[in-house]
TrEMBL record:
PROSITE patterns: ABC_TRANSPORTER_1, ABC_TRANSPORTER_2
GO cellular component: membrane
UniProt GO MF annotations: ATP binding; ATP hydrolysis activity; ATPase-coupled transmembrane transporter activity
Provenance organism: Paramuricea clavata
Location relative to the cell: Membrane
UniProt-recorded name of the protein: ATP-binding cassette sub-family C member 9-like, partial
Lineage of the species this protein comes from: Eukaryota, Metazoa, Cnidaria, Anthozoa, Octocorallia
Cited InterPro entries: AAA+_ATPase, ABC_transporter-like_ATP-bd, ABC_transporter-like_CS, ABC_transporter_C-like, P-loop_NTPase
Keywords in alphabetical order: ATP-binding, Membrane, Nucleotide-binding, Transmembrane, Transmembrane helix, Transport
Membrane topology recorded in Swiss-Prot or TrEMBL: Multi-pass membrane protein
């Protein structure tokens, strides 16, 4: 469960807030879509969850614990993120999947298989000991995103944040990523920051932000039933 209570976020104390007085209660296992026009504060909420901003007012509570009372490492170990630009390091496949070396090879292969990457990694010379070049440049953009999903399956998180994760991939790869998320992360609480509005149409509920404020919060069906809703206008604009 994630509760945002009167959440206000800014990039520095002297700068105006980017997110303003947002209050929502997200149930465990819910799939939440977050949308709004450019500059609405969508990705800033992600930074707040990971406590990466200097100015923070209000509360974020995860499973009854105020994150301001948590050390950063245990907090961030509870959260998995698939960013728009996936992060991979020069090193082996194994190191990139499991940098702390806590998992058996079978678990790594299972995560790769679930993420639809087993064949691609098998084709690399060396398999799990195969080389990943800096930035993962020897994998396609879509494969890098799937790699991040495999990595997320190996951490002790029950929260997955998709921060415009499919913005740079083609529609076919986007569909594959969505299928992996729906099947492998079905029991996770998922926040999807949407670039393509159609990726959040099957969410349980939608957060619509405008200039940092939460202006709509309901199921996609309810929001689409209102032709005057901002969400309806975003869907129409996407089509």
């Amino acid at each position: 469960e994630i509760v945002l209570k009167d959440l206000t976020l800014a990039y520095a104390h002297e700068l105006p807030p980017v997110v303003k007085d947002v209050t929502v209660n997200i149930k465990a296992g819910e799939k939440i879509g977050v949308c709004g026009r450019t500059g609405s504060g969508k990705s800033t909420i992600t930074l707040g969850l990971f406590r990466m901003l200097e100015h923070f007012e209000g509360q974020i509570v995860i499973d009854g614990i105020d994150i301001s009372q948590m050390s950063l490492r245990p907090l961030r170990s509870r959260l998995a993120i698939i960013p728009q630009d996936p992060i991979l390091f020069q090193g082996t496949v194994k190191f990139n999947l499991d940098p702390r070396g806590v998992h058996e090879d079978d678990a790594l292969w299972h995560a790769l298989e679930v993420a639809q990457l087993k064949n691609a990694i098998t084709a690399l010379s060396g398999g799990l000991e195969g080389a990943i070049v800096e930035g993962g440049e020897n994998l396609s953009v879509g494969q890098r995103q799937l790699f991040c999903l495999a990595r997320a399956l190996l951490v002790e998180s029950r929260v997955l944040v998709m921060d415009e994760a499919t913005a740079n991939v083609d529609l076919e790869t986007d569909k594959l990523i969505q299928e992996v998320v729906r099947s492998a992360f079905k029991d996770f609480t998922i926040l999807t920051i949407a670039h393509r509005i159609d990726t959040i149409l099957d969410s349980d509920r939608i957060m619509v932000l405008d200039q940092g404020r939460l202006i709509e919060w309901d199921s996609p069906e309810a929001l689409l039933a209102n032709e005057d809703s901002v969400f309806s206008s975003l869907v129409k604009a996407h089509k």
